[in-house]
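Sample 3 of the quickstart, ligand adenosine-5'-triphosphate:
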Amino acid sequence: MKSILLRMGELFLKGENRGMFENVLVSNIRKKLEGLNYKLQRTRGRIMIAEFDEENEIVERLTKVFGLVSLSVAEEVDASPTAISQYVSTIKLSNKTFKVDVNRADKRFPISSMDFAAELGGEILENNPNAIVELYHPEIVIHVDIRNNGKAYIFDKSIKCQGGLPLSTSGKALLLLSGGIDSPVAGYMMAKRGLKLQAIHFYSYPYTSEQAKQKVITLARKLSEYVDDIKLHCISFTKVQEEIHAKCAPEFMITIMRRIMMRVAEIIAKREDAGAIVTGESLGQVASQTMQSMTVTEDALESLPIFRPCIGLDKEDIVKIAKEIDTFETSILPYEDCCTVFLPKNPVIKPKLSKARSEEANLDVDALVQECLAGEEIINIKSY
Ligand code: ATP
Ligand code: MG
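Result:
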């Protein structure tokens, strides 16, 4: 019978909190495997999936769970020399180099690990005359893991998972999700550090299309395969942009827009019990992503920090992650983002805070923020 052995990562470093981390991880795994048949077993700090039907689907989903570093699909047999030998003698290796690695957690097992590995190696050679034993750099390592539960697990592959920390173990954050390449990646990176995400998107009908919004929903759905369900807050930004366009110096359009976005985001974040705002900004990538712009943007926030995990990444690095998490192809679809509406010819690259504030004073900011909140639409994105 097959079992899937799961390996946890940094959890081991967490001392006292280990139990809590493990419980959260297990509940995240259950959420991820919703709708599939399986049994989850926990013994002595090990997690295992047994009695499942859809191996590929289960493995695929487990590789997207934060907090797992790797997994192996193993054959489970009774922990007796006969049962293990019997299974090992069915292994086919053709002309590969290999070694057998026996790990005996159950010291009652009658043969020493070294002796048993040699014996099993001999059996494999008998059945695979072209295979070659190679102790230092074998192509295949056959692991035999003899456990205290009366079972042994035999496997030869480890599949890499995400690593990181289980979702929610670091708290909750609100991701500013545009239709671009960077913000989904930023969300992924922070979720990997244990943050549960909600998302907020600003759109500008009729200047931006329905497809532009659909694109963001698709991005959130793809992201949710990693970060589980996402509550997506959609905010109409048309009025704000029209007002800024009418009343403020054009070169401050983006600066003031971003300050108002932050205010709306902060109110929603606090209401949803989120402790930080996440953006996809990367230093120097565009005019609005200079140190000075960021300072002026942050000034609009009352107390929440902004996390910008892409800040030190090159575009190339960001694209690489976007491809890995499969958001890239959607991100490059050519629909307008609200940031491109009323775009001034010469946006200020190093805005002065005093000037931004005085331009902004031409607006009734509180009223605009309230109007954004009044039109809030919530879309619940489900991962599977
Ligand atoms: P992205 O690729 O994420 O769109 P970008 O390089 O296009 O980023 P900007 O458009 O300057 O950069 O936006 C910077 C960040 O501001 C984005 O990463 C995102 O977090 C946030 N943002 C921009 N536009 C929106 C929007 N319409 N709704 C929500 N957040 C937005
Ligand atoms: Mg953008």
